[in-house]
């Protein structure tokens, strides 16, 4: 399907420029979820068919990031994944994190280790002898800036530091590959367009050897589908050992949405999204960039008045553009921001 017509698969009310906050479900994902909610309401189905969505989601996510499904754990939040990854660190470990990092990928390190924060653009050079890990977002949620992954991975390799990435603002529009990473956590309710409550964690085999399964539970058990009662502790051999028992309905919405993204092709989605972001930037007199998220000093209240929904914080507008965003959405936003006032 052509990306320019893929928007037909959604029911977005025009003016949604806030996927960096949450993404909108494709129609068939929403409908699958409604079917399941109806089953739940009436008690007309066992939960096992709902649970099949977890395996589907895990496989689709693994495919998206070039991982084996056996190296992907399922969870509900990024902070939970990072908190368990933190068990791989030695006491007193030093973790380098960008100053601007979203706190779900900062607080877990502050609890477990010593954190050194640095300007995002100096991340690679801040990795030095004695650095145990570097943790960062592939795309920063506040600014939309992309981390220069190659440099960071090379610096981390040189000092034997773990590389821990948050892909919540990347997966779904930016091609992502787990090559060179130890952990990659992703919340699925933004660019993967799932209901909140589904998250994925790629955990490399070498990292897993050092991790403790702090949230061990029946779903992470060796028996596929559940280790229900009694000792001994018997966890899966692969990344499933770190699974949380799943928020079923979130995964019911996640599976069809992630499968659709794979089908449409993330590289094509990137071109579409960045093209729209750059159309928005050009309208405001800004140079193009390579991101689907634009953060700009602009009178955000005018967007609200025009019915455009973007994130407006402390005098800055954060607008984000996904597969269902249209040129009309962009042009309306530019018009609202520029009409009757000199560009700023
Ligand atoms: C980069 C990033 N990571 C994670 C999250 C969400 O974290 P959690 O899943 O812990 O709620 C967000 C939400 O805005 C985010 O922007």
Write the layout of secondary structure elements.
Layout: H1 3-6, H2 27-42, H3 48-64, E1 72-75, H4 78-85, E2 94-98, H5 107-112, E3 114-118, E4 133-137, H6 149-158, E5 162-166, E6 183-187, E7 199-203, H7 205-210, H8 248-264, H9 266-283, E8 293-297, H10 300-305, E9 311-313, E10 316-320, H11 327-338
Parallel strand pairs: 2-3, 2-4, 4-5, 5-6
Antiparallel strand pairs: 1-7, 6-7, 8-10, 9-10
Helix pairs in contact: 2-8, 3-8, 9-11
Residues 77-79, 102, 104-105, 137, 141, 166, 168-169, 187, 199 line the site of pyridoxal-5'-phosphate.
Describe, in short, the structure shown.
This protein has 344 residues and is of the alpha/beta class. 35% of the residues lie in helices and 14% in strands. The chain is globular, with a radius of gyration of 21 Å.
Describe this structure in words.
This protein is of the alpha/beta class. It folds into 2 domains: 3-25 and 265-338, Aspartate Aminotransferase, domain 1, CATH 3.90.1150.10; 46-261, Type I PLP-dependent aspartate aminotransferase-like (Major domain) (Aspartate Aminotransferase, domain 2). 35% of the residues lie in helices and 14% in strands. It contains 11 helices and 10 strands. It has helices spanning 3-6, 27-42, 48-64, 78-85, 107-112, 149-158, 205-210, 248-264, 266-283, 300-305, 327-338; strands at 72-75, 94-98, 114-118, 133-137, 162-166, 183-187, 199-203, 293-297, 311-313, 316-320. Strands 1-7-6-5-4-2-3 form a 7-stranded mixed beta sheet, sandwiched between helices. α6 (149-158) links the parallel β4 (133-137) and β5 (162-166). It is globular, with a radius of gyration of 21 Å. The model has no long low-confidence stretch (mean pLDDT 96). The structure holds pyridoxal-5'-phosphate. The site of pyridoxal-5'-phosphate has 13 residues, from α4. Pyridoxal-5'-phosphate is lined by residues 77-79, 102, 104-105, 137, 141, 166, 168-169, 187, 199. GO terms for molecular function: transaminase activity. It comes from Nonomuraea purpurea.
């Amino acid at each position: 399907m052509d990306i320019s017509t893929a928007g037909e698969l959604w029911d977005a009310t025009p003016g949604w420029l806030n996927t960096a906050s949450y993404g909108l479900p494709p129609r068939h994902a929403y409908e699958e979820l409604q079917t399941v909610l109806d089953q739940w309401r009436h008690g007309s189905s066992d939960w096992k068919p709902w649970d099949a969505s977890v395996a589907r989601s895990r496989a689709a996510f693994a495919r998206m990031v070039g991982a084996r499904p056996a190296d992907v754990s399922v969870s509900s939040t990024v902070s939970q994944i990072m908190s368990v990854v933190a068990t791989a660190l030695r006491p007193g470990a030093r973790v380098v994190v960008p100053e601007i990092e979203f706190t779900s990928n900062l607080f877990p390190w502050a609890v477990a280790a010593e954190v050194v924060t640095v300007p995002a653009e100096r991340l690679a050079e801040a990795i030095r002898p004695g650095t145990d890990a570097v943790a960062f977002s592939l795309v920063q949620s506040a600014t939309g800036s992309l981390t220069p992954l190659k440099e960071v991975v090379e610096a981390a390799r040189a000092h034997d530091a773990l590389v821990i990435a948050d892909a919540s603002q990347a997966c779904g529009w930016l091609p992502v590959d787990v090559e060179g990473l130890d952990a990659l956590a992703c919340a699925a309710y933004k660019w993967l367009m799932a209901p909140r409550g589904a998250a994925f964690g790629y955990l490399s085999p070498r990292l897993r050897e050092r991790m403790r399964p702090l949230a061990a539970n029946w779903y992470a058990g060796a028996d596929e589908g559940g280790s229900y009662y009694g000792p001994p502790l018997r966890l899966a051999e692969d990344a499933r050992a770190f699974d949380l028992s799943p928020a079923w309905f979130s995964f019911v919405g996640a599976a069809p949405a992630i499968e659709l993204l794979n089908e449409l092709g993330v590289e094509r989605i990137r071109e579409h999204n960045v093209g729209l972001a750059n159309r928005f930037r050009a309208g405001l007199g800004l140079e193009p960039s390579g991101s689907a998220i634009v953060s700009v000093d602009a009178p955000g209240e005018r967007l609200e008045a025009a019915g455009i929904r973007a994130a407006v914080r402390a005098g800055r507008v954060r607008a984000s553009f996904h597969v269902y965003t249209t040129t009309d959405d962009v042009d309306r936003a530019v018009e609202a921001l520029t009409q009757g006032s000199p560009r700023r």
